[in-house]
């Protein structure tokens, strides 16, 4: 049983060895250089000045406290969902349903606030975040039940439930949760008393702090608990995990419910911290960004923190470049994808 958890300092030693023995840092620097070269070429093909474009990207991401706050707010849901996915992927459970789980979290949080008697306050906000986590976890649980009891692959079950969740958001905004007379499918604006607190100088809400805490807790679970040991063994060899007495079905349930709760919490934070109302399609694309975060973090929950920050700041800077330089939106998407692809190639785990 002493081998079921890591020894003190093993986590930091493991990461240090990866950087030194695997040559990870030089590969990351090379990946960044290649991504910049490809981005410069694409910008030239669009008949724009690459130097001006890169300057606009940096200014858009780091040019002011407000821009940094925008990037941190964008990072929060990616980190919540990405840390949960890293744990799933570690055990070979391919959860592709974060989009739907985030959307369900938004539904849960919104329903609590709108149904709260009287004027909702801090307790209502806490209850809404709990409801967001529960709703996201239950939605992931539905996919797990379909996978385990009907023998449907988890990739297919979670992907298809994404579309169901997004349609469910539309349905509820057309009825019970919708704002009458609004030109868009959206809920009524939530009162300021339930908005997540913000740091005034940087204008980011506390969601990013909650996300970092959650990622650290997930990392602790992975490396310091018997459950984490079972996850790592299952990821290496499911027959070995079964031989050691671990239930693969139980591990799958725990991972999916936990990852769904994390994603749902990300949806609740997005609603209470940034949107302040449920909006049709608010979570579209978040889940696939979370997959990117999990992979960029090499399936290390602690490393999903810098990975999510990288994705959030890259996206914020790229959008600013589009606005200021006039780079086509499709080119911005290609530049983001190429950068992530090069970094992913440098950090991917090798068996």
Automatic annotation (TrEMBL):
A Pfam family this chain is assigned to: BPD_transp_2
Highest rank taxon of the organism: Bacteria
Annotated keywords: Cell membrane, Membrane, Sugar transport, Transmembrane, Transmembrane helix, Transport
Transmembrane segments: 24-46, 78-95, 102-119, 125-148, 160-182, 202-223, 243-266, 286-313, 325-348
Record carries keyword Cell division: no
Membrane topology note: Multi-pass membrane protein
Listed name of the protein: Simple sugar transport system permease protein
InterPro entries: ABC_transp_permease (IPR001851)
Primary residence: membrane
Native source species: Rhizobium paknamense
Keyword Membrane applies: yes
Cellular compartments annotated: Cell membrane
